[in-house]
Amino acid sequence: MASVDLFLNYILRSNVVTWVVLGWLSVYFIATLTILFARWSQLSQWHERERASLESIMMGSKNVRDDSILKRCVSSASYSINLLKVCKNVAEKNATIGLSWLSVIASTSPFIGLFGTVVSILETFGGLGNASSASLGVIAPAISEALIVTAAGIFVAIPAYSFHILLKRKAYEVLSLVERQAEIIASNAKAGEAKSGHDQLG
């Protein structure tokens, strides 16, 4: 309860720039958590589908499973290497959705917090210039309060950077499964073409 009162007092004493910066960082933090939970769930489900499809192909199936992303490009009736490459590019784009936002949040949050701190310190020194006394006991609390915004920026940047790495690794695992399936499909297609050519020659 005391910490809540301190925070409310800090907000009431702060200037408009500090409110804007803290609001901005709050939006960043909510966006970070939203991207993490949404993308992690989607990538985990996608990973399971592609893993099952790869196992199916390795067990002798002639085609990918219906829930694989490559199903759109590969069918028993038609096959195209170029179309398969397009599907792999689409898979890469879908797997990395949200990573650029996490990268932006991780890289800009500390600077946004620092901007808020600089403005608060400038305002503090501007107010002290008009005061009759400017002792350390007056300056130190004002500067420590100004540094709260920088701490908030770092607090937002750390999970954003960490989640960016985690999701990037998860996306890599999904794309690795897609790539293996594509290689097996391409290899089977080449083997089939070679066999049909050999049969025609025979």
Automatic annotation (TrEMBL):
<dbReference type="InterPro" id="IPR002898">
    <property type="entry name" value="MotA_ExbB_proton_chnl"/>
</dbReference>
<feature type="transmembrane region" description="Helical">
    <location>
        <begin position="98"/>
        <end position="122"/>
    </location>
</feature>
<feature type="transmembrane region" description="Helical">
    <location>
        <begin position="16"/>
        <end position="38"/>
    </location>
</feature>
<keyword id="KW-0653">Protein transport</keyword>
<keyword id="KW-0813">Transport</keyword>
<keyword id="KW-0812">Transmembrane</keyword>
<dbReference type="InterPro" id="IPR050790">
    <property type="entry name" value="ExbB/TolQ_transport"/>
</dbReference>
<dbReference type="Pfam" id="PF01618">
    <property type="entry name" value="MotA_ExbB"/>
</dbReference>
<protein>
    <submittedName>
        <fullName>MotA/TolQ/ExbB proton channel family protein</fullName>
    </submittedName>
</protein>
<keyword id="KW-1133">Transmembrane helix</keyword>
<keyword id="KW-0472">Membrane</keyword>
<keyword id="KW-1003">Cell membrane</keyword>
<feature type="domain" description="MotA/TolQ/ExbB proton channel">
    <location>
        <begin position="92"/>
        <end position="178"/>
    </location>
</feature>
<comment type="similarity">
    <text>Belongs to the exbB/tolQ family.</text>
</comment>
<feature type="transmembrane region" description="Helical">
    <location>
        <begin position="142"/>
        <end position="167"/>
    </location>
</feature>
